[in-house]
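Hi R.,

As promised on Friday, here is the backbone we talked about, encoded as structure tokens. Could you run it through your design pipeline when you get a chance and send me back a sequence?
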């Protein structure tokens, strides 16, 4: 798993060199989810990453929270985009 926010950005050094794009995305989402769970009681789970569209499932305190769109686009998309600049869309699914 990755280390979160060393130097202000998540590190993905623990992902093997031959990892697929989805493996790298999964590692990043798992790291981000651990942070969200620890500080806010919610979690985020990667559902799919295909054709540059990231689909996640938000659970725990994030599910139904009024600030879920801020978490989705601010935290999740804002964290993922520097590592995957070709990302077209981030969406929450149930």
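Update: got your reply. Pasting your designed sequence below so it's all in one thread:
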């Amino acid at each position: 798993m990755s280390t979160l926010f060393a130097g202000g950005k998540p590190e993905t050094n623990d992902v093997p060199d031959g990892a697929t794009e989805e493996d790298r995305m999964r590692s990043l989402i798992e790291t981000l989810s651990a942070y969200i769970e620890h500080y806010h009681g919610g979690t985020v789970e990667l559902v799919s990453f295909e054709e540059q569209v990231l689909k996640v499932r938000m659970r725990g305190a994030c599910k139904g929270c009024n600030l879920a769109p801020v978490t989705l686009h601010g935290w999740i998309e804002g964290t993922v985009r520097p590592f995957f600049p070709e990302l077209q869309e981030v969406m929450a699914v149930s």
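One thing I noticed while checking it: The longest helix spans residues 21-40.

Thanks again,
M.
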